[in-house]
Amino acid sequence: MPVQTGMSRTLTRKAFYSFHYLADSWRASKVRNIGVVEGNQSVSDNEWESITKSGSKAIEKWIADQMYGKSCVIVLIGAQTAGRKWIQYEIEKGWNDGNGVFGIHIHRLTDQLGLPSTKGTNPFSSLYLGNIPLSNIVQVYDPPYMKSADVRNHIAANLEDWVEKAIVTRNSY
Fold first, then answer.
1. 67-77 per-position pLDDT tens digit
2. pLDDT (0 to 100) of residue 6
3. Residues 6+ apart with CB under 8 A from 104
4. Which of 50, 88, 100, 163 is the most exposed place for a label (fewest CB within 10 A)?
5. Is the dihedral of CA 28, 31, 33, 38 positive or negative?
6. C-alpha to C-alpha distance for 29 and 58, rounded to whole angstroms
């Protein structure tokens, strides 16, 4: 996403995508491949397995490396996203690093079998900024369409604006 600077230079917004890898990687790839914001590199099953087998410090380092230089964390919310340790860690790290943070429900995007999923719980509900649930601050979008292609098109049409709104929201805290 191009962003104008005061010197007529254009910057591209970069985002970190947070999602439940095993359950939602297919759906997540549909969003990540939209291409309106530059995202973190995808990993293969073998790479992710290798990272996770190396322990918590290795996972934290991988997340930090992937988040480096990003301005926003986009949480792709599937049926099992809320409450996952590493997704919560990514949300907290992104917020604490000063990045914009927001979520998109992806349950109506189809998987590799052409099937949708069930709507997941808001993962920001269990995280707090002082006494305020992050769900009262962070926006979560639920595309209003039933067909996967329409959901994807809705996300594509709005993703840039959602990133900018998330950055503005974060900067106000």
1. 999 999 999 99
2. 43
3. 31, 74, 75, 76, 77, 140, 141, 142, 143, 155, 162
4. 50
5. negative
6. 24
84 contacts 154 by C-beta, under 8 angstroms: no
Question: Measured between alpha carbons, how far is residue 142 from residues 17, 19, 104, 158 in Å?
Answer: 16, 15, 6, 12
Burial class (CB in 10 A: 0-12, 13-18, 19+), 137: middle
Instruction: Kindly list the structural domains of the chain, giving each domain's residue range(s) and its CATH number in brackets, ordered by start.
Output: 2-171 (3.40.50.450)
Distances, alpha carbon 109 to alpha carbons 79, 84, 105, 145, in Å: 12, 20, 9, 10
In angstroms, the CA 144 to CA 79 distance is 17
pLDDT digits (tens, 9 = 90+) for 8-23: 334 578 999 999 988 9
pTM attached to this predicted model: 0.90
Identify the band that residue 122 occupies on the pLDDT scale cut at 50, 70 and 90. Answer: very high
Please state, as a whole number, how many other Cβ atoms lie within 10 Å of the Cβ of residue 84.
17
Would you state the structure tokens that stand for residue 123, as one six-digit string?
Answer: 């993962």
**Residue 50 pLDDT class (50, 70, 90 cuts):** confident
Q: Is the torsion defined by CA of 142, 148, 151, 155 positive or negative? A: positive
